[in-house]
Design goal:
Elements (H helix, E strand, L loop, with lengths): L3 E3 L2 H7 L9 H4 L14 E5 L4 H5 L9 H10 L12 E7 L11 H24 L3 E5 L6 H5 L6 E6 L16 H8 L2 E9 L6 H6 L5 E5 H6 L4 H11 L4 E7 L18 H14 L1 E8 L6 H22 L1
Parallel strand pairs: 2-3, 2-4, 4-9, 5-6, 5-8, 6-7, 8-9
Antiparallel strand pairs: 1-3
Helix pairs in contact: 4-12, 10-11, 11-12
Length: 319
Amino acid sequence: MSFLIPFTPIDLAHSLSKREGEKKIGEEINLITSTLSKTDGKFVLIGIPEDIGPRANVGNTGAKNSWNSFLSKFLNMQSNRFISANEIIIAGEVSMEGIKISTNNISELRKEVETLDERVKTVISEIVAAGKTPIVIGGGHNNCYPIISSYSSPIQVLNVDPHADIRKKEGRHSGNGFTYALESGSLSDYFVLGLHEEYNSEYIFNKFENDNLNFLSFNEILDKSISVKEMVIQVKDKLTKNKIGLEIDLDSIKNMPVSARTPIGFTEEKVRKIILETSKNYEFHYIHICEGAPKNKEEELIVGKTIAYLVSDFIKCNS
């Protein structure tokens, strides 16, 4: 696969801790054989180890670390009656070779994000063409645009996120991926779940006057004590197709080590319930979990294990 650094048996051995009498996911997961289409498995794990998107948005570093934080936690989960590890392919990570990751110039970073867009789209398009479901981990929310653009016809997307990320087209960054997806025609309908009224501009709220853009704010969820089941009913009223893309921005989780950390938000358990409930109502083009930004061992544990649980839930619900 073009622009992909493939995951190898050596990589697997470095990430895996075997224990007598147990079977870990990493012992039964599939690696790509001759071609992706000929490799057994429905779900394809892809990492994007970058933080140029958040930095191009004048944000913080660290999103490049979530893929590796996730790997060891997920691969060392138990393979048992509750999850079928042989349905999972670990493909590898999008190559960052040749991209100027060290620059701090905003204009240069935004040009580099455009280069990354093409690489991500190439990788995801190959997964889609093989008839498999991408599970995309890591990097900033800039990567939503090339993922959504990988489908041959416009798709509907649910984004669990305190920020709408539909800012102006001022050069590519993590705050305008959905703007580019909407204007390119790749994104037909868009729903933001858990949007924070305090951290989205009037410009963005004006954009939601379009019929194909909708949100349910975190403030309203609190005020009306809206359950997860009721949240998804509201989503279903707007995203009416049977199949959607699912975006989980870890910024939505309170106190999570992320690019835009917040003390207010969903709990990890609530986001797990959102995945469970949406899986009862939809099939999925893909799931994208982004913006985790661990910077030390403790934060790597928190981010890595949280993503591992979310991925596990998604696979269990959609196998």
